[in-house]
């Protein structure tokens, strides 16, 4: 009798394990698809595109991630941990201005590769997630980077944390227009901005090469075509 019960129980457990494994595979596929779609087009991309790329139905997506915010949190958790680690390292740089400059350049380089980065950092996400802890760690270490550069006189006193968000928004707008025709144009704006952030009297660094008129024209034409 006990042998029959055990056999019956094991038979019932097998489908449950299979369903759980299938659900985990679907979740992993959705996160991987979201990572690609958000990087290419931003976090406001249609969720249907993510489900399609993952090879699942939209209902499956909503079962795994009832809100867009939960999907964003799952997608960017590892990247935000990596960025928080890099910012903490910058906060310990021997030269405070170098730490600040490297940190800002790193953020912009990440954004150049990932259209959803800035929004993922700024938007409200579920609080009971690891991503919230990474964002708080990022915010604290970035505050240290800024404070050290201001205390040693290399960063202007009126610079605030929110200025980095504004810079990322500005470079993001340039990236959307110039990504194909002049993919490094954002670096010139960044160089100008870094000089504007410097405390008065510090020597200016050389600027990256400006995009050509032809590159800018092609970028503008491509933007018009995308809007049609």
TrEMBL record:
InterPro entries: Homeodomain-like_sf, HTH-type_TetR-like_transc_reg, HTH_TetR, Tet_transcr_reg_TetR-rel_C_sf, TetR_SbtR-like_C. Transmembrane segments: none annotated. Coiled coil: none annotated. Residues 46-65 bind DNA. Residues 24-83 form the HTH tetR-type domain. Residues 1-20 are annotated as: Disordered. The keyword Transcription regulation applies. The keyword Lyase does not apply. Keywords: DNA-binding, Transcription, Transcription regulation. One of its GO terms (molecular function) is transcription cis-regulatory region binding. PANTHER family: HTH-TYPE TRANSCRIPTIONAL REGULATOR BETI (PTHR30055:SF234), HTH-TYPE TRANSCRIPTIONAL REGULATOR RUTR (PTHR30055). This is TetR/AcrR family transcriptional regulator. It comes from Streptomyces corynorhini.
């Amino acid at each position: 009798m006990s042998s029959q019960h055990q056999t019956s129980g094991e038979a019932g457990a097998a489908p449950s394990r299979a369903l759980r494994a299938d659900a985990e595979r679907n979740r992993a596929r959705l996160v991987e698809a979201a990572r690609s779609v958000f990087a290419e087009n931003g976090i406001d991309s249609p969720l249907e595109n993510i489900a399609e790329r993952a090879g699942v139905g939209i209902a499956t997506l909503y079962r795994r991630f009832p809100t867009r915010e939960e999907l964003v949190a799952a997608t960017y958790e590892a990247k935000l941990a990596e960025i928080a680690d890099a910012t903490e390292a910058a906060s310990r740089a021997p030269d405070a201005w170098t730490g600040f400059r490297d940190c800002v350049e790193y953020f912009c380089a990440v954004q150049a590769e990932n259209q959803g980065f800035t929004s993922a950092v700024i938007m409200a996400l579920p609080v009971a997630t690891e991503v919230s802890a990474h964002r708080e760690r990022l915010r604290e270490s970035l505050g240290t980077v800024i404070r050290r550069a201001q205390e040693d006189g290399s960063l202007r006193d009126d610079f605030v944390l929110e200025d980095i968000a504004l810079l990322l928004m500005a470079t993001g707008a340039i990236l959307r227009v110039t990504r194909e025709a002049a993919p490094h144009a954002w670096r010139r704006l960044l160089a100008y901005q870094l000089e504007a952030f410097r405390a008065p009297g510090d020597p200016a660094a050389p600027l990256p090469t400006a995009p050509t008129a032809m590159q800018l024209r092609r970028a503008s034409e491509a933007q018009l075509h995308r809007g049609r």
